[in-house]
Design goal:
The structure holds three protein chains of three kinds. Chain A is an all-alpha fold. Chain A has a domain at 9-277. Chain A is 66% helix and 1% strand. In chain B, 73% of the residues lie in helices and 3% in strands. Chain B has a two-stranded antiparallel sheet with strand order 1-2. In chain B, a hairpin with a 2-residue loop joins strand 1 and strand 2 (150-153). In chain B, 50% of the residues are buried. By secondary structure, chain C is of the alpha/beta class. Chain C has two domains: 1-83 and 169-178 and 200-247, P-loop containing nucleotide triphosphate hydrolases (Rossmann fold, 3-Layer(aba) Sandwich), CATH 3.40.50.300; 91-166, no CATH class. Chain C has helices at 46-54, 76-82, 99-105, 113-118, 123-135, 151-164, 181-194, 207-213, 231-235, 238-245; strands spanning 8-17, 20-30, 35-39, 61-66, 69-70, 84-87, 169-173, 199-203, 216-221, 224-229. Chain C has a six-stranded mixed β-sheet with strand order 6-7-8-3-9-10, with helices on both faces. In chain C, strands 2-1-4-5 form a four-stranded antiparallel β-sheet, covered by helices on one side. In chain C, helix 3 packs across helix 5 (123-135) and helix 5 crosses helix 6 (151-164). Classes of the chains: A mainly alpha, B mainly alpha, C alpha/beta. Chains in contact: A-B, A-C, B-C.
């Protein structure tokens, strides 16, 4: 029992447990369905933020194109649901019954072949997981094998996000264009708009998110996590210890992409539509700020950050629409200048010492540029709370 | 369609590409200085361009209201003003924000993105969300027809001329002036430059401000081919970054070549495809080439 | 070229940066079990030579054979896995990790992505870490964060990280830079121990230290080899005295 306690403390599972309680118990008990559905929507962005913690915080690679993967996941889920909603009976008034309405409006008379697999849920789910991951693999393998890092990678991912939006909007006959894919109602006949369905989807989503955090935590605790941190600070040393550094970055990018895609699919299921406004550059960078506000090194913090920013956005953009962008701007600048470790960093440096339970604990090291106290727990020190100020300079091209 | 018709269309299409080339190059030049020489990711670069565009609009409106007789003459003055207003803003931004972030390129990216949001909202509050256009002087309108069926718009030629002057000026300044020498010295070896008495902090600030000023001129050029809205600049930011990266960061010649290549590719593709597919094709092409040759078109092999 | 008994055979190696030949048609052989020291004035191309051997810089021409296998086209991590370890000029360790973790990460198992995911710190790994830590004099400091070590200890730690990989060729770039007299003594002893059963290349400026450890000395100048042989022979070579020792 005591050993278990120590292990939970060491692996940071306590904070995951608290988050799970908040998401799966506190929110459902205190919120009406409308708000809960809203939280569910925000939590789908949480998948992206968690992926960014692994990619950016741990791997030191910033992607400005996570919306691409979120969107891909969401779109592929939407394609399945749209086909189900477009059966020949419901769409009999169309000139070509049995195809999605937007195709009919665009004078397309036959379902494109690449829509066909999305008639089947298993295929659609596999595609949600694999297609974004594969795309991420291709992009990152090409880039990282050639030592393109840091800034250049960010610019390329941004270009990919732009390509994706222009493509979706331009090919409206196949993609639904700027409106996206709308009017999604059922999944295998199950009405996703019903109250019970919304509750179920919320819990599935929350459960998946906690699962994703646990998976990432497990990766962080493995040698792979240590290597990611080591690479971020001393890439050459890792390389000349016999590791193929590029493959580790590829892994982190693929992981982040897959998580984003899951988030996207859950978004479509809960919100009932998918559109290019979740794919482009602006949403992609906003997702980065979710992770940054929460703390780019903290998986749990990333989820809190996502919730906080989105609550703020909903509140301000309704009440003070003019102020919202300024506030967002202040958030970007403030989090970079003043709180590079985000909420998690503030918690570590201000709240945690108040508890002061483990007496001999916070030996704040004098490592320059180091914001977070290091928590060395007895025998095997963990690699948490490493300084992040180093960024990923010096690996440009 | 006769052969001359086809030639004429090709020439005009090529010229349309040149206008895009001019704006891309002016945007790219500013970025090439800021990003290529200083390594700062200036996501607010598009907004500095918008500042330039709005400056022209303000000058146009003010001249029309108070000095209607000078409408044909305000434009050159306004271009210089566009440079200096963007320059001053750049100077302030460097002092307030950028200088704290030199060692953290990715953080600069986020901070300047935040800055760009704030600037966009400011434009929206001041000038309104609708797109505006300055009244262009008469001599900029119309077109030049050297042959029958061939119309070359005058504003396009003016923008090209402006771009040539600015590009020449930047190249000259960077390779012939004291400032250029200081910039290049700082880029090559900051501590050493410091040790030889170069005020590298001041050089940084000046460099950033000049880069922003050039973006202002890009905005001025932009008003002759499109109307200005709060988010006009942000539409060009990705393209501008691609121009610089594709050309090879640190190489101004590369920036010129890549701006030309990108603009012409897009313009030619637009002739055969829809606008959006042309854009997709161009971007895909650049990204693919960058994946194969990440150092860009022009880059020297150096010991790292 | 022909097969040799040498553990490392560098032949006609050239690299140029924008026309400047940092290494110019250089040929160098290292025996098994040999401790070779490379000396030479600044800019002679010593570090570049190590960069070329370990793949950090790509050669323009020539060949590098390690145990008769060509290395010039291999990726860096493959060169390491073939058995070449490299220490950098400034100590390059993971400052935020403990000494234990630093050594553990260098253990040559679980080097692929999924291998690293499944890697478990077994007793075998622990024993190996302990024995290497003892070897480099950090046996009692396993839990110390590496960033808190003294400069000399950091140098040793990096050597230890290389030892974890059990390389057959170890390349050390200025291992005693910034060390106290006592630390230099210990390092010399350490080098004498670790070159048993493996070859070592050391770049060093300190002549007393070189005299003490070197089996054979290579003098480089302007990307070429100026002289090679025992310390005595090299020291009395007029060419060497002219460009280097005579200053």
């Amino acid at each position: 029992m005591n050993a278990l306690k120590i292990w939970i403390g060491k692996s940071g599972l306590g904070s995951v447990l608290i988050l799970a309680l908040i998401i799966l118990v506190v929110f459902p008990l205190t919120m009406d369905l409308f708000r809960l559905n809203l939280v569910g929507k925000y939590l789908t962005y949480g998948f992206v933020a968690v992926g960014l913690v692994m990619l950016w915080g741990y791997g030191g690679v910033l992607s400005l194109g996570q919306g691409v993967f979120f969107g891909l996941g969401g779109y592929m889920m939407a394609m399945f649901m749209k086909l189900e909603a477009s059966d020949p009976v419901t769409t009999k008034i169309q000139s070509t019954p049995g195809i999605p309405d937007f195709m009919d409006w665009n004078q397309i008379t036959e379902l494109p072949f690449w829509w066909e697999p999305f008639r089947h849920l298993p295929l659609a789910l596999i595609a949600v997981l694999l297609v974004p991951t594969l795309l991420a693999f291709i992009i990152s393998y090409a880039m990282f094998k050639r030592r393109v890092g840091g800034v250049y990678f960010a610019i390329i991912t941004q270009a990919v996000a732009l390509i994706m939006t222009v493509l979706i909007i331009g090919q409206q006959g196949y993609t639904g264009g700027v409106n996206g894919i709308t009017d999604l109602k059922t999944m295998l006949g199950w009405d996703t708009r019903e109250d019970t369905a919304k509750y179920i989807l919320y819990f599935v989503n929350g459960g998946l998110l906690i699962g994703a955090i646990l998976l990432c935590r497990w990766i962080q605790m493995s040698k792979l996590g240590t290597l990611l941190l080591a690479m971020r600070d001393k890439e050459d040393r890792v390389r000349f210890s016999g590791y193929d550094v590029s493959m580790f970055k590829v892994f982190a990018f693929c992981l982040a992409a897959m998580l984003s895609a899951i988030g996207g699919a859950m978004f479509t299921l809960q919100v009932g539509f998918m559109s290019p406004s979740f794919v482009g550059i602006v949403p992609s960078i906003e997702m980065v700020i979710f992770a940054a506000v929460g703390g780019r090194m903290s998986l749990v913090g990333a989820v809190y950050g996502t919730l906080l920013v989105n609550f703020g956005k909903t509140y301000f953009s309704e009440s003070f629409p003019d102020l919202w962008l300024f506030l967002m701007a202040a958030l970007f600048i403030g989090v970079v200048l003043a709180f590079p470790n985000g909420l998690a960093g503030l918690y570590e440096s201000h709240v945690k010492p108040l508890f002061g339970r483990r007496k001999a604990k916070p030996e704040t090291t004098a490592a320059p540029g180091d914001g977070t106290p290091h928590t060395s727990t007895g025998g095997k020190p963990l690699s948490r709370g490493a300084p992040i100020s180093g960024d990923v300079q010096g690996q440009s091209a | 369609m006769s052969f001359t018709d086809i030639t004429n269309i090709a020439l005009m299409q090529g010229f349309a590409g040149l206008s895009l080339f001019a704006v891309l190059l002016l945007m790219g030049l500013g970025l090439a200085i800021i990003f290529g020489q200083m390594g700062v990711i200036n996501m607010a670069h598009g907004e500095f361009m918008t500042i330039g565009a709005y400056t022209i609009y303000m000058f146009s409106t003010l001249t029309e209201t108070y000095l209607p007789g000078f409408v044909s003459a305000y434009f050159p003055v306004a271009i210089i003003a566009a440079f200096f207003i963007a320059f001053v803003f750049g100077w302030i931004v460097e002092w307030a924000l950028i200088r704290h972030l030199y060692k953290r390129p990715l953080d600069t990216l986020l901070a300047t993105w935040g800055l760009s949001l704030a600037m966009q909202q400011t434009f929206r509050s001041v000038f309104g969300a609708r797109e505006v256009s300055p009244t262009l002087p008469d001599w900029l309108l119309g077109s030049w027809a050297p042959a029958e069926g061939l119309d070359i718009p005058i504003n396009g030629m003016f923008v090209l001329g402006l771009t040539a002057v600015v590009t020449g000026g930047v190249l000259l300044a960077l390779y012939r002036s004291r400032w250029g020498l200081r910039v290049r010295a700082t880029v090559a070896n900051r501590p050493m430059a410091n040790a030889t008495g170069i005020n590298t902090k001041r050089t940084d600030r000046l460099t950033y401000a000049i880069g922003c000023g050039i973006a202002g001129v890009a905005g001025a050029a932009f008003t002759t081919i499109g109307s200005t809205g709060p988010t006009s600049g942000s539409l060009y930011i990705v393209d501008a970054f691609l121009v610089v990266t594709f050309g090879g960061a640190g190489s101004l010649l590369g920036t010129v070549a890549s701006a030309f290549g990108i603009a012409q590719t897009q313009s030619i593709a637009e002739f055969f495809l829809t606008g959006s597919m042309a854009k997709v094709l161009t971007l895909l092409l650049i990204v693919t080439i960058l994946m194969i040759r990440p150092q860009g078109l022009f880059a020297s092999k150096i010991r790292r | 070229m022909s097969n040799t008994d040498f553990v490392l055979a560098v032949e006609d190696l050239t690299v140029s940066f924008d026309g400047f030949k940092a290494i110019d048609a250089l040929t160098l052989y290292v025996d098994r079990g040999e401790l070779r020291v490379i000396i030479g004035p600044n800019g002679a191309g010593k570090t570049t030579l190590l960069d070329l051997i370990c793949g950090k810089t790509r050669a323009s021409a020539g060949s590098i054979k390690f145990k008769n296998v060509e290395m010039t086209k291999l990726q860096e991590h493959k060169i390491v896995r073939a058995g070449i370890g490299r220490k950098f000029q400034t100590p390059s360790i993971y400052e935020n990790l403990s000494v234990f973790k630093n050594l553990e990460v260098s253990f040559p198992r679980g080097r692929s992505v999924f291998g690293a995911l499944g890697f478990r710190c077994t007793d075998e790994v622990r024993e190996r870490v302990q024995s290497v830590a003892d070897e480099i004099g950090l046996g009692d400091a396993l839990d110390v964060e590496a960033g808190l070590l003294s400069h000399g200890q950091k140098q040793w730690l990096e050597i230890g990280m290389l030892l974890m990989q059990e390389p057959e060729l170890l390349m050390l770039d200025e291992p005693i830079a910034g060390m106290s007299v006592r630390e230099r003594e210990l390092t010399a002893e350490l080098l004498a121990r670790i070159c048993k059963g493996r070859s070592v290349i050391v770049i060093e400026h300190d002549m007393d230290f070189v005299k003490r450890i070197a089996h054979k000395v290579t003098v480089m100048h302007q990307g070429k080899i100026l002289a090679e042989g025992s310390m005595d022979k090299v020291q009395n070579d007029p060419k060497v005295i002219d460009v280097y020792l005579g200053h």
